Structure of Molybdopterin molybdenumtransferase:
Amino acid sequence: MVTVDEAKRRVLTHTRTLSAEKRTVLNAVGYVLSENVLAGFSLPSFRQSSMDGYAVLHTDIIHADVVLPIAGESKAGKAEKVSMKPGTAFRIFTGAPVPDGATAVVMQENTSVANGNVTIGEYPVPENKNLRNIGQQIREGDIALPSGTFISAGTAGFLKGLNIDEIPVFRKPKIGILVTGDELVKTGETLSHGQVYESNSSMLVAALKQEGITDVEIYYSEDDLSATVQSLLTLSERNDVVIATGGVSVGDYDYVGKALETIGAETIFYKIRQKPGKPLLFARTENTNFYALPGNPASSLVCYYEYVLPALRLMSGRKECFLPAYQLPISHAYSFRGERDEFLKAFVSNGKVTSLEGQESFALRSFAIANALIYLPVSQQTVQAGDMVEVHLLPF
Ligand SMILES: Nc1nc2c(c(=O)[nH]1)N[C@H]1C(S)=C(S)[C@@H](COP(=O)(O)OP(=O)(O)OC[C@H]3O[C@@H](n4cnc5c(N)ncnc54)[C@H](O)[C@@H]3O)O[C@H]1N2
Ligand code: MOO
């Protein structure tokens, strides 16, 4: 049995980033850059106005209410280059090229127009006011985004603005899920006494989907050693990670641990001093990492979020791999006994966290509405309302 911290340390130590692949920017959202990306040109590539108004030479504005003749217009998207003489002004719009000779833009609201002249109601007008200069955002040849950048909507927009549509990213892991348990029945079939609907695989597929991992295949195995061995072997040949659910405890029909031993996987840890999710088993062969999750649904999902998700993120090149953790006040008193740290299904709202009804490891009802987990180490077995507790936010 290892501590929560030790289990997390071992996950970090035994997880490697996967190889890189090329993806179009839109298909790379949620991935991580595997190389620096350089700017092929400066942004902006020409001097632009950042306001609708009038382009002026700032040194012409020597007092309030200077009157200048309007010598022309520059609108966004016009191809020809325009220039402006001192002592004149140019009508200009947001994003339009600033005429050569102009050094500032006065916003429309600070001007008035009559008889082809504009009165500038602003004094002084500093040089470069309301101008975007060439390369102000980034210069040609500079690193636009460093290796390791997570591709978000903002990243996608920035890259597209640089005319970049294909980028190198770390690939995401291919996942094989192994479901074990003779009592499990697929949704839609009729339940006999003693049977339950199989839900862990859908829960895992949903969690993987939220992470942008869709290359997932599911095998079902009877509670039988050779069937479990065969499924694990096939899944490990075809995938980077195998996630098993169920059959990892000490019962006579719990074959996952024995099967992993049979295929020669090295156990990195088995059992964590936590509740729920104690019997998590992490093992590896040369090319595959195996996470055998406890069958109890809530235990399975807690283990997925706390240990498997971070590993999958690391494999995909992400550095911030654990759920975001914050210290928040708890809205009520809570205490527990025993030797295991606890993860409580919880809800964060208005800067406070509340643990939900139904913390048993077979019960998913609380998880179904949770947006966070409270982590209480054994050193914090009694908390009062208002005490600060560690909260891990679930992905949304
Ligand atoms: N003598 C001991 N018994 C148990 C221990 C222990 O230390 N000593 N640990 C308990 C803890 S803690 C957990 S957690 C469970 C883990 O058991 P398994 O991983 O072997 O899981 P199963 O026995 O296969 O199933 C447990 C429970 O979950 C239901 N289940 C399983 N798979 C699914 C699925 N895919 N979809 C829906 N529900 C599923 C299953 O029907 C059982 O009710 O062991 C304790 N026992
Ligand atoms: O660890 Mo088990 O998940 O406590 O029921």
